[in-house]
Design brief:
Length: 264
């Protein structure tokens, strides 16, 4: 259709620029690992924030989240029914059975990496474990659509199909959180376009070689509906069901999707 050809493709970055983005992304990966290693019962999410900031700064990078639209932390720590944007706090003490989602951004040499993962504290309920493993699986299935020649919503559609397949594969009912999704990323964290986590395929700007998106499924054990708490940040499920969040910064290349936020 005519309007499609008028839409500019998602800007393509050179291989050298992708390498520079990956340098930022590897700092994010290392930080997520350091935070997970420290996340034990009795530890506050504020302590995790301190570990994240130190890890990022020791690498010569800057915590992208800190001060972003006034956000007070270097990471988002979203526990249980918190979906995303949880503010680290000394009152939020981790307990066995918690599901913690940690989202981190680092700016290094002018490029941004953005990635998130969720993990349990001690033993977690079987359904919560299924939710978490399913969300990780959906991310990795969905990002396979990040190839030159696809359109933006081909990734959205792939994420939706993967979510429905994950329900069968993991034996769990999943909600796709409405109104939140991924985004373009490069010199700044949030760039156009917005990437929905579901929808019809074949629409939106073209993905070309070097296009980069932050892909981030957010799934729940219940509702698709959310609310923002009075702190203007914390996004919770409306029914109190647990939520998981996994994210990678991903480039489309001729060789296939390239994860720019790798971790061991
Ligand atoms: Mg993120
Ligand atoms: Mg993001």
């Amino acid at each position: 259709m005519a309007f499609r050809s008028k839409r500019r493709p998602i800007p393509g970055k050179s291989p050298a620029e992708l390498d520079a983005m990956q340098a930022a992304g590897e700092i994010v990966g290392r930080t997520l690992q350091a935070v997970k290693a420290a996340a034990k019962p009795g530890v506050s999410t504020l302590e995790l924030d301190g570990i994240a900031e130190a890890t990022i700064r020791e690498a010569g990078a800057y915590p992208t989240f800190l001060g972003y639209q006034g956000f007070p932390g270097s990471i988002c720590t979203s526990v249980n029914e918190v979906i995303v944007h949880g503010i680290p706090g000394r009152e939020t003490i981790l307990e066995p059975g918690d599901l913690v989602s940690v989202d981190c951004g680092a700016t290094f040499n002018g490029w941004v990496g953005d990635s998130a993962w969720s993990f349990g504290i001690g033993e977690i309920d079987e359904d919560v474990d299924k939710l978490n493993r399913a969300t990780e699986w959906v991310l990795h299935e969905g990002l396979q659509a990040m190839v030159p020649g696809n359109r933006l919503t081909d990734v959205s559609h792939a994420l939706e199909l993967a979510t429905r397949e994950a329900e069968r594969r993991f034996g769990v009912d999943l909600g796709i959180v409405d109104g939140y999704g991924g985004h373009g990323i490069g010199r700044t964290m949030h760039e156009d376009p917005y990437l929905a986590n579901e929808g019809r395929p074949g629409r939106g700007p073209l993905i070309q070689e070097g296009s980069v998106l932050a892909i981030e499924p957010m799934l729940t054990l219940g509702t698709e509906d959310s609310a923002v708490l009075e702190d203007d940040w914390t996004v919770v499920t409306l029914d109190g069901s647990y939520a998981a969040h996994w994210e990678h910064t991903v480039a489309a290349t001729a060789e296939g999707p390239r994860i720019l936020t790798p971790r061991k």
